[in-house]
Fold this protein.
Amino acid sequence: MRSSQVWRGAAIVALLAAPGCAARTVYHQPPVVAAPAAFLESADWKPPQPLDASLRGNWWEMFGDQGLNALEVQVDLSNETLKMAAARFDAARAAIRGARSDLFPQVTVSPSISRADPSGHRPTSPSSAPYGDFVLPVDATWEADVWGRVRSGVAASRAAAQATAADLESIRLSLRAELATDYFTLKGLDREQRLLEEAVTAYERALELAQNRFRGGIVSAADVDQAETQLETTRAQAADVQVDRAQLQHAIAVLVGQSPSSFVLPLAPLETEPPAVPIGVPSDLLERRPDIASAERRMAQAGSNVGVAQAAFYPLLTLGATAGFEASTFGAWLAGASNFWSVAPALITTVFDGGRRRAVSDEAKAAFVESEAAYRLSVLSAFREVEDQLSTLRLLEQEAQIQARASEAAERSLTQANNRYRGGVVTYLEVVVAQTRTLENQRAEVSILSRRMAASVQLLKALGGGWTVANLPAN
């Protein structure tokens, strides 16, 4: 067959297959549960002033804490978990390039040089003289993506890479939120430590007073013992706070990629109130939560995998070509008469596979249904997390107001008990009870403030931390 006829035949096959070049499946993001117009807990929520309807990228700066700002910057630079996630994203991007390479011809070159001395009794050899064979072939093979199999694979790899990018942002957000939570909890412990140190100082003076009154014969030794017991108990509580603080400091060191042995945070008692957070509307979460974006991209990946599975039901069209030079001597290798070529289009179809392709297709469709359910669940979970933190902040604010009144009442009771004891009206037991209640209420007040700060951090995390779907890599 002449070369023009070969090329004409290949062109006819390609033209006949052209109508099927589009992928058989088209992904459409499915609807989720109807998002409410507003969060249930937002009715009494205080918006920030001046009003800002959306978060910004560096969400932790809302707390106005320079120490936290400096630590958050180190997460991107040094956190090992984040480096692992970034490496997974790089691997996913490389997988896209690997899948896209199937869109182009695969070209190989396999030059060879041989020398042969055939047998004189070989029936097909008219001569037994030695000869050489110098071959320079170039082979090209290309799969015509008639049914969209390759493009569906590329789309699946692209969606997987975007999901990995969203996972990276989810991990970054979680690490930063964990760092902020640990940081404010540690500062809460510093404030507790300050309370306990002040209490120890006050109890030392109370013990000295009881000892003086005992030496003067005014009170019994029981008062001295009670005062000493109260003092040592408080010292033990202060030591216990130091244990918790050390563990939090070590956890923060790991988060910022430093050795706990050389990482030290100075004492900084918690004083600030939680900031007002712009919560927006529930539908914003579909664009602002990286975990929702990851679930949606994995759903798109599963949809593309369905296209790959369905393409297996159609014939596979490949175009092969070989060209090169062959001669018996090296000098004649590149002569015009030494060239050769061939073109070989092929159409391959599977006529029987025992139901294998159908099983693969059903598996891909089931995986898509699973990913769709996972996507909807991620949206519902996002709504729940925001509502959880909003209700937590609302109730903790009420509890803080009540606890503040309780602390004030306990301090007044302690003042009265001390005065009554100095006047000889009551024993030191009443003072001990008042001291214990006062310290307990003060510590509870600090604990509530720490929980409010942590809930604010978790609310910012639940809102996506200022991230948007537009940050996903497009290509």
In short: The longest strand covers residues 131-144.
